[in-house]
Write a structure and sequence with these properties.
The chain has two helices and 18 strands. It has about 240 residues and is mainly beta. The protein has one domain. The strands form three sheets. Strands 1-2-3-14-13-15-11-12 form an eight-stranded antiparallel sheet, covered by helices on one side. A five-stranded antiparallel sheet has the order 4-18-5-16-17, with helices on one face. The N and C termini lie far apart (about 35 Å).
């Protein structure tokens, strides 16, 4: 285990929200960690507008959507893999409405590196499940996004990951810790899947974690002065006030 350094912590804790940010260095790699309490923070998923070539890179459209509903976007990150027209590759549920269906097909790329998974919110809280388990969990789901691969399932690393892999990218994902807190992470340096999964397991103490994407990984966090605008993004997940 490398030296764990909390370089910055910006906690925004009150009765209405428990959103917090920290910077972590582990095993020579840097990460930004965002903790969200689903019992207090208002987590929302923003589907993209497929085929809308006028969408600007980054989070401008999401900021505008929140503002139109008299909300302030406090934090956001890309929420899963998407097609060239910005539509989601897999399942997407926003505000209790299914936008796109579960994708159980075979294919090439990280999304299809089985087992992949679904991050969801329902009446019981937050869950990360293998995609094949989702069919039994339709009741009361307000938010869901399918991505892949699963970084961790019940504390076990995905079998395809290797510590010596040279595939190193900026990556982002989400985990759930033992207290039911959501732990969103974006790497601030290039990492492989094994490094990313071990950060969730050994440092952030999450038994379940899901990979959201790489290369396009982007973060909106005004408190940190972050508003990444790398590319046009597909679905985005965020916290609003």
């Amino acid at each position: 285990m490398g030296l764990l350094l909390f370089l910055c912590a910006c906690c925004l804790c009150n009765t209405a929200a428990a959103l917090s940010f920290s910077h972590v260095d582990n095993e020579g790699a840097a990460y930004t960690v965002i903790r969200v309490d689903p019992r207090h923070d208002k987590l929302q998923l923003f589907p993209a507008s497929p085929g809308d070539n006028k969408v600007a890179p980054g989070f401008a459209a999401v900021v505008d959507q929140a503002r139109a509903h008299k909300q302030t976007l406090r934090f956001a990150m890309n929420a899963g893999m998407f097609e060239a027209d910005l539509s989601s590759v897999g399942l997407l549920v926003a505000n209790g409405v299914q936008v796109s269906a579960l994708n159980s097909s075979q294919g090439y790329g990280n999304f299809y590196l089985k087992p992949n998974g679904v991050f969801l919110l329902d009446r019981g809280g937050a869950h990360i499940v293998e995609s094949s388990e989702y069919s039994g969990m339709h009741e009361g789901i307000t938010l869901a996004t399918q991505s892949g691969p699963l970084l961790l399932r019940h504390g076990i690393e995905h079998p395809a990951f290797h510590a010596t892999s040279n595939s190193r990218l900026t990556r982002n994902g989400v985990g759930i810790d033992a207290q039911g807190m959501l732990v969103f992470v974006i790497s601030d340096s290039a990492v492989n899947f094994h490094q990313f999964a071990m950060l969730f397991r050994d440092v952030l103490h999450c038994d379940d974690a899901l990979y959201l994407d790489g290369t396009v990984s982007s973060l909106y966090a005004p408190e940190l002065g972050r508003n990444d605008a790398k590319v046009r993004l597909g679905p985005v997940i965020g916290v609003v006030d």
